[in-house]
Specification:
The protein has 578 residues and is of the alpha+beta class. It has 21 helices and 13 strands. The chain has 3 domains: 197 residues, 2-Layer Sandwich (Beta-Lactamase); 156 residues, GAF domain (Beta-Lactamase), CATH 3.30.450; 181 residues, Hypothetical protein af1432 (Orthogonal Bundle). The strands form 3 sheets. It has a 6-stranded antiparallel sheet with strand order 10-9-8-13-12-11, with helices on both faces. Strands 4-3-7-6-5 form a 5-stranded antiparallel sheet, with helices on both faces. Strands 1-2 form a two-stranded antiparallel sheet. Helix 3 packs antiparallel against helix 4 and helix 12 crosses helix 20. The termini are far apart.
Length: 578
C-alpha cells in the first residue's frame, strides 16, 4: 500500500485507514479489508501469542514480550519501547530488543523526536527517515548502530497516549498486524504500569515506615540524617542526594551530607554562596524546584560540580523548614524558618515524578524535625554541662592544687571507656559521673580541703565521706541515677580496702573502677602541696604494680593505650601545650 509523504517531514499519510474491531472474534471478517498477502496471516495464532504474553504482569518483561512479537511480525534490526512520562511529557525507553541495541539505552529519553511525538499524538503508524542519531539517543552509547529509518507504532488507550514502539530498519512493515497487536496489548501495558506504580508506592511506604522506626532508635543527629540521605537516594532512584544547611552568619549553603550510587560520601563543607545556585533559590524562596536539564537553567551553580567531579543533569530540590519557638509574654510564638535544602540529582530511570517530590518533601520535613530536636537536645546538654562544669570548677578552685582536676578526670575516664570499646550511652554516663565525682566535697569543711599538709586521722575520716555525700546530693536529680556509682565508688578498691563502703571485686561498678584509675592517675601526675607531680612512667608503674589488688587490669591497660595514642594529656603536658 503506497503512502504519500509531506514536504514538511510529517509522518506519511496512509491511503486506506485501518478499521479494526476491539473484538478478536471478528478478526476473520475484518481480514477482507486487507490485501491477499495480509489476510493470509494467521491472526488467531497472533492472538494466542498475545494472550500468552499478556499473562506477564511485570512491566519490563511484558514490553520485552511485545517487542519480540513485533519483530516476528515485522522483521527489523532492532526495536525499542518508549513510554510517556506523565510528569515531564518525555518519551523514556523502557525496553529494547535486538543485538544492535544495548540495555543501557533503557531509562534514556528521546532528546528531539518531534516526529515520533506527533505520531503518538495523532495515533498513526508510519515510517520516519532518516534517523538523527543525536535526536534518537541523546547521551546513550549506541556503539556504532546507525539505523536508516524507523517504523513508529503508537500505543494509546481510550484516546490517551501510553507510549510508542519503534522498529529500526524494518524490512517488512505490517501496519494492520501491528495495529491488531496494539489493540490487544495496550490495556495490558496500562495495567502493568499501574501495577508497577502500586508496587513502588507500597515499597516506598514500607521503606518510610522502616526509616522512621530507625529514627527513634538514636539521638545521633548525623546518623539519622545520613540514613535519610541514603534512603532518599535509593527510593527515589537518583544518582546522588545531598543535604545543605544554611550558615547563619554568612547565609551560605554548606554541604552537610551527601551520598552517591557508589556509597561514597562527597566532601562535606563545600559552600554555595547565598542566593546562588538552584539550592540557593530553594532556600531563598522556600519553594520546591524541579529542573530536568541543569545545564540550561541559569540558576545552576557549577562550583559544586567542579569541586566534586559530579556532573549534575537533573535536580529535584526541596526546602528544609524548621519551626522555632520564640518565648515572650505568657505564650510562645512559633516561627517557621528555612534552614537548608534537600536535593536529589540525576534520576537514573526516567524523570523525577510528583511522588518523588512528595517523598522528598516528607523526608525534608522529618530531617528538619530531627535537626530541631537535635538542636534543642544539644542546647540542653550544653547548658547542663556548663552548669555542672561551673559547679565542679568552683569546688576545685577552693584549692589551687586541685584546679582543673575534675575536668581532667572526666577526660581521662572518657578515653579509658572509649579504649575499652564501651557503648556511647555508657561513655556518656561515665562522662557526667566522672565530672561530678568530687561534687561531695561541697559538704567538706574548707579548712580540710585547703589544708597544705597531711590530714589528721579525724580529718581524713571526714574527707572519706565526700563520695557518699556527692552521691546523696545527686540522687535527688532524677536523670542522674545511672551516674551515681561513679561518684560513690571512685575511692573503692578491688581488695576491699577502699572507702566509703569498703566494696570489693565485682561489687564495684565498672564506672567506679574506671574513674578510680583516672582519679589516681591525675593525682599522681599533678602537683600537690606535699609533693611534686610524678613523671608519667612512674605514675603508670604505680598503677601497674597494684593491678588486680586495687585497680582493674582492663581499666589500667586502657589508660596506658589511650596515653600512648596521644588522647590523654596530664596537667604538666597541658601546661606545656598552652
Amino acid at each position: 500500500m503506497a503512502a504519500a509523504e509531506s514536504s514538511t517531514g510529517d509522518l506519511p499519510l496512509r491511503e486506506k485507514p485501518v478499521i479494526l474491531s476491539e473484538s478478536p472474534e471478528v478478526v476473520m471478517a475484518q481480514s477482507a479489508l486487507f490485501s491477499p498477502e495480509e489476510s493470509s496471516f494467521p491472526f488467531f495464532s497472533l492472538l494466542e501469542k498475545a494472550n500468552q504474553a499478556a499473562v506477564e504482569a511485570d512491566l519490563p518483561r511484558l514490553l520485552e514480550r511485545i517487542l519480540q512479537l513485533s519483530l516476528e511480525l515485522c522483521p527489523s534490526r532492532a526495536a525499542a519501547f518508549y513510554l510517556l512520562d506523565p510528569v515531564s511529557g518525555e518519551l523514556v525507553c523502557r525496553a529494547v530488543h535486538g543485538e544492535a541495541l544495548r540495555p543501557d539505552l533503557i531509562g534514556k529519553n528521546l532528546v528531539a523526536a518531534s516526529a515520533i511525538e506527533q505520531a503518538l499524538q495523532q495515533d498513526r503508524l508510519g515510517e520516519i527517515e532518516p534517523v538523527d542519531q543525536v535526536a534518537w539517543w541523546g547521551a546513550a552509547d549506541v556503539h556504532g548502530f546507525k539505523p536508516g529509518k524507523a517504523f513508529v507504532a503508537p500505543f494509546t488507550l481510550a484516546g490517551q497516549p501510553l507510549g510508542v514502539m519503534v522498529l529500526f530498519d524494518c524490512t517488512q512493515p505490517r501496519p494492520e498486524h501491528l495495529q491488531f497487536l496494539i489493540r490487544r496489548m495496550a490495556s495490558e501495558v496500562y495495567k502493568a504500569g499501574q501495577l508497577a506504580l502500586s508496587r513502588q508506592r507500597s515499597e516506598r511506604l514500607d521503606a518510610m515506615i522502616a526509616i522512621f522506626g530507625q529514627i527513634g532508635s538514636t539521638l545521633d543527629r548525623d546518623q539519622i540524617l545520613r540514613m535519610m540521605v541514603e534512603f532518599a537516594r535509593q527510593v527515589i532512584n537518583a544518582e546522588a542526594c545531598s543535604l545543605f544547611l544554611v550558615d547563619e552568619e554568612t547565609g551560605d549553603m554548606v554541604l552537610h551530607l551527601a551520598s552517591n550510587v557508589d556509597r561514597e560520601i562527597q566532601p562535606v563543607g563545600l559552600r554555595v554562596p547565598a542566593g546562588k545556585g538552584i539550592i540557593g533559590d530553594v532556600v531563598q524562596k522556600g519553594e520546591v524546584v524541579l529542573v530536568s536539564d541543569a545545564k540550561r537553567d541559569r540558576r545552576h551553580y557549577e562550583g559544586v560540580d567542579h569541586s566534586t567531579g559530579f556532573l549534575t543533569q537533573s535536580i529535584l530540590a526541596v526546602p528544609l523548614r524548621s519551626r522555632q519557638v520564640v518565648l515572650g509574654g505568657e505564650r510562645g510564638i512559633i516561627k517557621e524558618k528555612v534552614i537548608g535544602g534537600f536535593e536529589a540529582m540525576n534520576k537514573i530511570d526516567g524523570f523525577f515524578t510528583a511522588e518523588d517530590t512528595q517523598l522528598l518533601v516528607n523526608l525534608a520535613n522529618q530531617a528538619a524535625t530531627v535537626l530541631q530536636i537535635s538542636s534543642l537536645y544539644t542546647d540542653a546538654t550544653n547548658l547542663f554541662f556548663d552548669v555542672v562544669g561551673a559547679l565542679t570548677e568552683s569546688i576545685d578552685a577552693k584549692d589551687p592544687y586541685t584546679e582543673g582536676h575534675s575536668r581532667r578526670v572526666c577526660d581521662f575516664s572518657v578515653e579509658i571507656a572509649r579504649q575499652m570499646g564501651l557503648d556511647a550511652e555508657v561513655v556518656h554516663c561515665i562522662r557526667i559521673g566522672s565530672l561530678l565525682h568530687d561534687v561531695g566535697k561541697i559538704g567538706i569543711p574548707d579548712y580540710i580541703l585547703t589544708k597544705p599538709g597531711h590530714l589528721t586521722e579525724q580529718e581524713y575520716e571526714i574527707m572519706k565521706q565526700h563520695p557518699a555525700i556527692g552521691a546523696r546530693i545527686m540522687s535527688q536529680v532524677r536523670l542522674l541515677h545511672e551516674e551515681l556509682p561513679a561518684m560513690a565508688e571512685h575511692h573503692e578498691r578491688l581488695d576491699g580496702a577502699g572507702y566509703p563502703k569498703g566494696l570489693s571485686g565485682e561489687a564495684i561498678s565498672l564506672a567506679g573502677r574506671i574513674v578510680a584509675v583516672a582519679d589516681v592517675f591525675d593525682a599522681l601526675t599533678s602537683d600537690r602541696p606535699y609533693r611534686r607531680a610524678l613523671p608519667v612512667e612512674e605514675a603508670l608503674d604505680y598503677l601497674g604494680h597494684r593491678v588486680e589488688r586495687e585497680f582493674d587490669r582492663q581499666c589500667v591497660d586502657a589508660l596506658v593505650q589511650a596515653y600512648l595514642r596521644g588522647v590523654i594529656r596530664t596537667q604538666k603536658e597541658r601546661e606545656l601545650l598552652g
